[in-house]
Amino acid sequence: MIYEGKSLKLTRLPKLLQTTVSLEEPLFPDTSKKILGIFESLLQQGLISQKQYSYLVGSQPPRPRYFYLLPKIHKPADKWIVPHRMPPGRPIVSDCGSESYGAAEYLDFFFSPLSKLHPSYIRDTQHFLDNIQNIRIKEPCFLFTMDVASLYTNIEIPLGMAAIKRCLEAHLVEGRPDKELLELLHLNLTLNDFEFNGSYYLQVKGTAMGKRFAPAYANIYMTEWEQTVFQKCRKLPQHYFRYLDDIWEVGTHLEEDFQNFVEELNSHHASIRVEPTISKTAVDFLDTTTFKGPDFEQTGILATKVFFKPTDTHALLHKHSHHPKHVFRGIVKSQLLRLLRFIQLVFYCEVYYLGNKLSKYFKNYNKTSYHCAVEPVTPASLSLSQHK
Questions:
Q1: Distances (CA, A) of 206 to 103, 202, 219, 237
Q2: What is the pLDDT of residues 34-68, one digit of tens each?
């Protein structure tokens, strides 16, 4: 999409719309009947209660799904669709109130626990930090991260369905309606029609952000992708963790071996490609930076600190907002605790330095935020032991 004068004209279809076909009329009214039939069958089998049935089918008639974009303002402005004027967009298909909304939530209930069973699973930043604190690394080594490009919309539907089926078969649970789950998943993936700019489209590849089960579905697919591609790789990283489509690794091989590893990953499935970043000293992952601190050669332990994107203005709440005073104080405290937990501190004097740096940091909030009355920090006023 680009600007022409003051008007916005669609001259380049968003990536999601490139994996769709046009429709003359919506499909969701007929899809609704199919989903209702599956839920009625589950009700008759006693696998869901009447109350659950009413919740899952939702309000009738359902509304169509709508496509929209979330601007990726964190991307470099010189690489925007219109440099410094229009950022690229993250495709979202809103599923709220649609005929499949309850079905998507029902699928997520069963898929989400299964998506957390793989060895590289990372729940959140704290879970990541807990994991890397237990590893010891020897030089020479490289730190690298990889991002799976447009994962949700690049999962081939037959491959995704097969991965889910094998996962269900590998983790059998008595009373779980696997047959109905696969039927609901097939309807969600193959009949995901939506409205955009007054026209209707049918998504024919991948799943859209907006489906409740999408993160778990992608996670299970990536688990199988990892298991199969690693069998082909000649050399594997020493440590490997993944948060959905974001990957963090440590390699003790040569840089050339890493490049070969990336080529092997990108040749495994035609639609799944990774975009790597490699460094001998530091990499950014989630909202942390992992790096080789001054004592790395002696301990083999990576140091960490908080990572802020360049577009982060730290504007958490406007200073004139009518929130209770304790909310403002809570924001300051929570940010202090976050940085204390994320930053690996070796000497107590570093706590003193960090505290005074944060005092200045919060006082920089002006018209777009609020002034925080942060008292000068002394070593006695901060105790790591009581905040861990």
A1: 17, 11, 13, 28
A2: 999 999 999 999 999 999 999 999 888 899 999 98
Q: Are residues 187 and 39 in the same domain?
A: yes
Asked if the structure places residue 147 within a domain, the reply is no
How would you list the strands of the sheet with 193-196, edge to edge? 20-23, 199-203, 193-196, 66-71, 89-94
Q: Distances in Å between the alpha carbon of 270 and those of 159, 227, 267, 274, 364?
A: 12, 17, 6, 11, 48
CB 146 within 8 A of CB 263: no
Which residues of the chain fall short of a pLDDT of 70?
1-18, 344-388
Whole-angstrom distance, CA of residue 342 vs CA of residue 127: 11
Q: Are residues 56 and 204 in the same domain?
A: yes
Dump strand ranges (E) for the chain: 2-4, 7-9, 20-23, 66-71, 89-94, 142-148, 193-196, 199-203, 239-243, 246-251, 274-279, 282-285, 288-291, 303-306
Report the pLDDT value the prediction gives residue 46, as an integer from 0 to 100: 96
Specify whether 320 is located in the same domain as 187: no
Euclidean distance between CA atoms 220 and 108, whole angstroms:
12
- Tens digits of per-residue pLDDT, 260-285? 999 999 999 988 999 999 999 999 99
Range of the domain at 354: 313-386
Rounded Cα distance, 76 and 87, in Å: 9
Domain co-membership, 184 together with 70:
yes
> How many domains does the chain fold into?
2
* pTM confidence score: 0.83
The answer to the question of residue 266 being in a domain is: no
User: 61 Cβ partners below 8 Å, 6+ apart?
Assistant: 29, 32
